[in-house]
Known about the structure:
- The complex is a heterodimer.
- By secondary structure, chain A is mainly α.
- Chain A contains 9 helices and 2 strands.
- Chain A has one domain (about 5-75, about 120-210): Fumarate Reductase Cytochrome B subunit, CATH 1.20.950.20.
- The longest helix of chain A is centred in the last third of the chain and has 31 residues, at about 145-175.
- Chain B is an alpha+beta fold.
- Chain B has 7 helices and 11 strands.
- In chain B, strand 5 and strand 6 form a beta hairpin.
- The model of chain B is unreliable at about 295-300 (pLDDT under 50).
- Chain A: Belongs to the formate dehydrogenase gamma subunit family.
- Chain A: This is Formate dehydrogenase, gamma subunit.
- Chain A: InterPro entries: Cyt_b561_bac/Ni-Hgenase, Di-haem_cyt_TM, FDH_cytochrome_b556_subunit, Formate_DH_gsu.
Amino acid sequence: MHKQNMILRHKLFDRICHWFVVATGLVTFLTGFAFFFPSFQWLGSIAGTPQMARFVHPIAGLMMCLPLMVMLVRYYHHNKWEKNDLTWMLAIKDVMFENEDKIPAIGHYNPGQKVLFRTFVVTSIALTITGIMMWQPYFAPYFEASAIQWAILIHAICAVIMLIFVIVHFWMATWVEGSVAGMLYGYVSRAWCKKHHPNMLNDPELKTNKQEKH
Amino acid sequence: MSAQDIILSSGTSELTPAAQVRRKLSKVAKLFDATKCNGCKACQVSCSEWNDLRAPVGSFQGSYQNPMDLSSECWTLMKYQEVEENNKLNWRFAHSACMHCDDPACLTACSTKGAIVQRANGVVDFDSDKCTGCGYCVSACPFDVPRLDPIDQKAYKCTMCSDRIQVGQEPACVKSCITGALKYGTREDMLFIADLRIKELRKRGYVNAGLYNPEGVGGTGMIMILHDINQPQNYGLPADPKTSVPIKLWQDVVKPLGAAGIIATVAVACLHRITVGRNLVEEDEPAQFDHTHSDKSDKE
Lengths: 214, 300
């Protein structure tokens, strides 16, 4: 493996953004889980007390959702629907079982990742709006009780959807060896690209470690 | 008060019920007879005295009602509803406090284990020390009773003077009622007394007199005799109070389905991991710049 030939997949700013979202998301999900399933109230203890968890949750939630909107802007162009995407989606079974020869070539992101990205964007917008509506004591007093009740319901549904997609995200990232390293250090090998995102190598803006340094 | 049996507790399910009822306790109730009330506010004052509540002094808002609304420092409020009937202005006095529902929406909506409990005698009580201030009970209550305190951000409401009840006394409001509009006793007794009173009222010409004891919340621990049972809004009471649809969906559908979805996703992920395994890239291959996706498998 030639280190100078590594390909830049995630820029430093995006990596910081991503791991910031992971950190704040962890706090948000663990505290939120404590309210959603009171049997898991002990998870909220990461904030100290249940009262503190209630106070921290909306702030951590905003700190998770707002950088996600930054990532929406930064990654938007990579996440447009492309020609091969439908055939890739139909071949999802081959993807899962690693029948490499049957998987259509895709670019910087595969359609699964695009669906994931869209879900994160939509749910975080919904979570932010409903979260503000139910945020005691600052914003909730301005809303009707029935509006808050629906906000709580939608907030819970979106949180569950987001958590399921977070699990999928974590599972795929750890399954495909090299992804986590790519998100941590920014670079992936040429062979990795060829295997997982072959069309990425056609990107005219492709940067390697060598080009960056010299 | 903890010695009293708890039969319902927020944040628990049928699988993890609250402490079992060991003694069979009769349910208690407060009976408010609006036809006897003269709006003297003794109940309001004695509530404030006994529970040591000191709501800030308000300003005149064009009504004899004061304060204008319930708060964390006002658990019992004499509401002065102005109703026009036959071109005459009538007052409809309403003793406004927690209704102690048999199926309390606040308890259903509460996000914290044991912060809201229902005692074996039917009293719905808040353990404010456990309250996290999420405000779910505030938005859930169809009677708009619980309120968050601006200082400690915890929810408060009428406890039916649980501390007095426990030692065999009646609630402070009942104790101080001068006209006998408020009565306290077992729910059975109160329903019996209410029935007699309503029959008497109907004989005297109040043909629509009736008992406010809404079915939607399983009946209440504060029942009310009204001049006209078809017009509960004249007393500031909802016509058909119940646990709302979104709260029911959230607790009874989204939670179990959500749990199943999360567990199923984790299970599939684990299965995939131990069957398909790791998706490795063979880095030792000469790095050829090949734009086409070769047929050769990259598999190990």
